[in-house]
Every structure is written in C-alpha cells, then in structure tokens.
Amino acid sequence: MATFLYRMGRAAFRRRWLVVLLWAVVLGAVGAGAAKAPGAGDEGTSFMPGIEAQKAFDLIGERFPGSDADGADARIVFIAPDGQKVTAAGHRAAVETLVEEAAGQPKVAGAVSPFQAGAVSEDASTAYATVSYRVAAGDLTDADKEALESVIGEARDAGLTVEVGGTALATQPAAGGAGEVIGIGLAAVVLLITFGSLAAAGLPLLTAVIGVGVSMCAILALGSALGLSMTTGTLASMLGLAVGIDYALLVVSRYREERANGHVPTEAAGLAVGTAGSAVVFAGLTVVIALAGLSVIGVPMLTKMGLCAAGAVVIGVLVALTLVPALLGMWPDAVLSRKARRRDSRAAAGQHGGAEDNGGTRWARFVLRRPVAVLVACVVGLGVLALPAADLDMGMPGAEAKPVSSTERRAYDALADGFGAGFNGPLTVVTDVRGAADPQAAAASIAERIKGTDGVVSVSPPQFNAAGDTALFSAVPSTGPSDQTTKDLVHTIRAERPGLEEATGATFEVTGSTAMNIDVAQSLQDALVPYLAVIVLLSLVLLMVVFRSVLVPVKAAFGFLLSVLASLGAVVAVFQWGWGAELLGVEQAGPVMSLMPIFLVGIVFGLAMDYEVFLVARMREAYVHGERPAQAVVTGFRHSARVVAAAAVIMIAVFSGFVGSGESMIKTMGFGLAVAVLLDAFVIRMAFVPAVLALLGHRAWWLPRWLDRVLPRVDIEGTGLTREPAPVQDPSGGVRPQEPVRT
Predict the structure, then answer these.
(1) Which residue, 25, 88, 322, 477, has fewest beta-carbon neighbours within 10 Å?
(2) What's this model's pTM, rounded to 2 decimal places?
(3) Are strands 456-459 and 161-166 parallel, antiparallel or unpaired?
(4) Could you report the average pLDDT of every consecutive run of 10 residues in the chain (743 residues)?
C-alpha cells in the first residue's frame, strides 16, 4: 500500500493543476445538483420497524385510511390573565373566532373549539384547540404558517396569552452554521501555533472545507430522494470537518518532516502520502466501518446518519491523498516555517542535524519511568468518570427539552399546569376487534380495564373505523412522557393484554409518541452492548492486520472501552443528572437522546482508532527499523505526539462549537464527542498507551507464526520505501532526487 500511495502522492504533486481542476469540477457539479434539488422531505413514518408502537402506528394507517397520521397539527393553548377565565364572554369570543378562521384555511382538515371538545381545565384558566392539516409539516408554505400566526395574533390582542405546540409551527433551530464557524476559527489558531506558518495552517482548513462542501452539496442534492434531514447533514459536516482537518494535518506534517530530512518537494510529497497517507487510509477505514455498521441497528434514521457521515469521511480521505499533495505542489515551500526553511537549506548542503528532543519525547520518557503509576491513574480516573453510565436512561425528549424562550416549551408547560403532567404524552390504544363476538362491548371492556389501571387519569371513548373492525382511544397518564412511572405504566398495560384477549376475543396495541419513544429507547439500549462488542472485535482484527501484533490491538480495544464509557458517564452526569447543565444551555435534565449513545460509540470507536493508528504507527515504524521497544515509543512520540495533540484539540474545538446548537441531539452529540476526544487523545493515547507498551516491551509486537502467515500484509510503516535522505547534489548545484528503493 505504501508504494501505491507514494506513487499517488508524486503524481498528484506533479499533475497538481489537473487534480485541482478535477476537484473543482466535482464541487461545481454537486453544487449545481444541490441548487436544483427540491427540499428534503420528512424522514418517513417507519422510524423503527418491528417494535409494538411502530406496528400499531402502521395499523392505524391501514385501518383508518381517511386519516393522515403524518399530517401537521397545531395545538393552540389559551391562557387567561391572572384571576380571569377563558370562558369569559370576551375571551370565549376570541377563541371561537380563531378556531373559525383557522378552520377556513386551505390546507386545514379541521379545527375543534375547546368549548365543544371539553378541552378546558377545571379552573377554566387554560384551554386548547387542535388544528389538523391535510399535509405534512414539511409541505406547509410560509404563507400557510403566516396565516395561522395572523389569527393567533388577533387572539393575543384580545388579552389572552396564546402559545402553540405541535408540528405546524415548530421551529427548526439552525443546527450547525455557528458551530462550524467557531470550530474552524479555533482550528485555525491551533494549526497556526502548531505549524508556525499561515500557509501550513490554512491548507488543512481549505481542503477540509472543500471536502465538507462536496459532502454537504451531495447530501442536499440527494436529500429529497433519500429523505435526508438537517440533523443528518449536520452530523456529516461535523465529522467531515473534523477528520478532514486532521487527515490533511497529518499529511502536511509528514511532508514538512520529510523536507527537514533533506528530500526535495516531489519526493517529500510522495513519502508523506506513502507513509502518513497509509495511516490516513486505515484510520478513515475504521471510522467508515463503524459508521456504516450503524445500519445493522435497524433504525432508518440512524442508518442515514451513519452512511452520510461515512461518505463525508471517505471524501476527507480522498482529499488528503490527492488534493493536499496537489496544493503542496503549488506552494512547496510556503508550508515550511522560517526555521524549517533554514534547516532545509542546510540539509541541501549536506548539513543534517540529529533528532531533537521535544515535549513529546520528554513526556514519553516521564511515562516510561513510571508506567505502573500512570497506568493505574488512567484506569482509576476513567473508571470513576464512567460510573454514571451505569444509570444511563435513554429516551426522546420532546418540547420539555426546548428553551423556555420557545412557544412550544411554553405551550407544553401551560398544558401540564392546566391538565396534568401526563396530558402532553397521551397513550394511543389501537384495538383489533375482528375476533370479538361483540366488537362494541369488547372495545368498551378494554377501555374500561385500562381506565382502571393505576396511573391512568382518563380514557377517551373508543372511536371505530368505517369497517367497524378497529377501535381507537387515548389514555392519559398521571405522569409526564419521560417519567419512569410512565414507562412502567406502558409495560403494565401491555401485560394486561393476554387476559383481556382471552376474555373479549379482541386484542390491542399501545402507540403514540410516548410509547414510541419508550420502545425505541429500549430497543436501542438492548442493541448498545452487542454493537459495542462487534466493533471491539472489529478493532482487534483490523489493528492486528495493521500492526502485526496481538497485544497492541487488545490494549487499543481496552483503551477505547475506557474512553467511551467515561464519555457516556459525562453525558449522563450533565444531560441526565443535570450537573452543570445550565452552563451548556440545557433547559431541563432528563433521559439521554435514544440515538445518541449508540451513535457516540460508533464515532468514538473510529476516532479512537484514528489516534491509535497515527501514534502507534510511528512506534511500529521505529521498531521494525531496529529500535528497542522503549526507544521506539520515544521516537513515536517525537514525531507524532504534537500532531496527535493538535488534531485532538482541533476535533475538540469543532465538536464543542456544536454544543451551542438549539437542537438537543446535536448539543448532546457535540458535548459527548468533545469529551470523548479529550479523554481518548490525552489520557488513553498519550498516557495509557505508552505505559502499557513500556510494561510489555518486546511482547507488545509478538504475533504467532501461524497468524502471521494468515493475516494479509499491509505496509503501513513504509518499509517498501527507502528511509534515507534521497536528494543528492547535481553538478549544477541543484538537488535531484533518487528513486526510492523497493524491497
């Protein structure tokens, strides 16, 4: 592989204008496709096929064909001024006027007055009206929304406080624009400090932005056809930007190192891509496999996020292997610092200096002197951080997690105050009465039994479909949608099904947003441990191929488990327990987003293997070239510690920028990833790894002979390339390269 990538790097360097032109054409083509593509539609109704709530939801669509389960709705909440009632003549007239005008709008299927539906609180301080649309929320135009907002404004002018929940006017927070700008700005500062050159700092940023541009334009172009959402695109841009900068950083850093070793620009670019590029390929491969593996979980939304993010990572790898050396060919000396240029001049004159100690070598020697103490400190510290993960509670926070400045949150709070906490999360019960002798009596019996269940406040009368074989009614819990008591209630109601089915001949299923969230959370929680086991096994196999070792992959997998569990513990402590939540703008602590932990595991696995490959590849390279194990660790840190640290800080900066997002999923993901990178890069890779390698010595690189014969060979260390300075003086005083010696 190293030889192939070496030739690719030299070819991109020499044919730089062609490579740049090809990338410009690609960016222009996908950009034009994105500009002409229609807006992305909804994610689809089948969130997680196979769970009871989803099957019941699908049954409603089948048995009640006249109803559109995906239609937008607006729940308009009216709150009377203190000491007054919504039933007062003036307030009542304003409410009825609003309902009448809303019902007359073109896409509205119906609007019901709270006074007709009995949707008035006991103290008459609060009432609500539901406006149902014939189309999905994504199909409502600005004019449709403005028409509804206009009639709401008239009710407010009458003295009522009016808040709106539901999907019709739900705000869609900007998921990442500001976060990306903050992340890029911080990354630029880190790169400038690391390289000491504006050009060297700017090149990884430029190529990463181009890569993200290609990825995002492709997602926008395919969004309508594949049902890709804003969240999907944001996560792809988040990862694409982070790994794009890191991969380019690794290649540029190796290019500067090869120039310092005396190689001419063309040769340095080839060697940089042949060595660092090999690490980039395998690092990117681990991320792609982990993200693509999310498709086995069985959640379409998770599959889309994983595949889109994997595509962004692939683009980042291709950019690092082709566009980066091409741009280096345009400005071969610009990425070098002044000190490096002087050193390069001395190298061209035959004055090669020895390897210099730096912060990385000093830290490595510190760890090598105290491996046991460092190892114990890492394991105990991360173990303590991981303790909250044992209390992980997964769910799908709704309007209660939105900022109090949003009308959806205020509507949620007003309904909870006026009608009870469970009113915001009613359970929908679908009763199949085809096997009952008396369908009406069977449905009524089931409704009455559920009404008598502890924790149920009220049950609506069963409503039959036109065929008379299915009944639908709602049950309001006494507790909120994300409360553990509500989850227990759902399980209790479902446990009553066998007895009721035997007694009535009818059966039922429980659905609704609350039941759907409970089922999804449980399914994902059950899938978390198997998925974790699969990718740990994957890491063992992949790293065994890369490093030709048994114990190095085991060490890497154990370190990954420590970092991911510690990051999950931090997420639970902040977002579930509420520790320091106000500092991050978390409005209300509660269950962790159901999709977040399993997605976090996949991403952190990929990033952890990134740093493992970046750092340990240089140690392996030194070891196979004859250095003793301890010295190989020091050499690896001399060349890679600074780059890995810079790459980690850049990733932390990029991910931290998304913590300010108004989207709960993005905020949680940004925080979790930032913490995970911090722990994995600076605790696991910088302390745990050298401590373990110091204790293992030569045993770290042991591989049974039979396994050595079975495993495929990949030249990630660049042993197929000469490692001696290649340039020689020509008679005219210039420098010409020698071709690398193939082995």
Answers:
(1) 25
(2) 0.77
(3) unpaired
(4) 87 94 94 78 58 88 70 88 91 92 88 87 92 82 89 90 86 55 76 78 88 89 69 76 86 88 89 87 84 78 83 93 94 77 51 61 93 95 94 79 80 90 90 91 93 91 90 91 90 93 92 88 84 82 85 90 92 89 76 83 80 84 87 90 85 80 76 91 93 92 88 69 45 40 38
* Secondary structure letter of residue 160 according to DSSP: -
Closest to 323 (Cα-Cα) out of 203, 184, 187, 194: 203
Report the distance separating Cα 190 and Cα 184, nearest Å. 10
> Longest Cα pair distance anywhere in the chain, in angstroms?
105
> What does DSSP say about strands 427-432 and 507-511: parallel, antiparallel, or unpaired?
antiparallel
List the structure tokens of 428.
């929908």
Scanning 478-550, the segments in alpha helix (DSSP H) are 484-495, 497-504, 513-547
Distance between CA atoms of residues 726 and 736, nearest Å: 8
Q: H/E element holding 76? A: strand 73-79
Give the C-alpha separation, 505 to 28, whole Å: 63
Alpha carbon distance 220, 533 (integer Å) = 34
Using one digit for the tens of pLDDT, what is the confidence trace for 259-282? 888 889 999 999 989 888 888 888
The number of residues in the chain equals 743
| Structural element, H or E, at residue 483 | none
Please identify which residue in the block is written with the tokens 């001399």. 638
Count of CA atoms in the C-beta half-sphere (13 A) of 93: 5
Q: What is the pLDDT of residues 380-433, one digit of tens each?
A: 999 999 999 999 888 777 777 777 778 888 998 999 999 998 888 889 999 999
The 10 Å Cβ neighbour count of residue 714 is: 15
Distance CA 400, CA 587 (A): 8
The whole-angstrom separation of Cα 563 and Cα 674 is 12
